[in-house]
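#lab-general

N.A. 3:47 PM
ok so I finally got the sequence cleaned up, no stray characters, all 71 residues accounted for. can someone with queue access submit it? mine expired

B.Y. 3:52 PM
send it over

N.A. 3:53 PM
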Amino acid sequence: PWRTPLEFQRDLEKAFGPRDGAIARITRAFVEARYGRRTPPAEEIHRLESDLQQLSAQDRIATTLEGVPPS
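B.Y. 4:20 PM
back already:
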């Protein structure tokens, strides 16, 4: 079933926790870029890239601890 970005954000936060606001920041930037046709400034893009790297690293750590090899 389809979900809006904000519904998907809630699902992600329920599953993984808010992750220090990273999921919300990424979702907000997506909504603004997709529906508001707003290009984020360079410093926001750098923050979003950092958020994505942290989420990816946290996921690798969690899957390794659970015995599932990271992808």
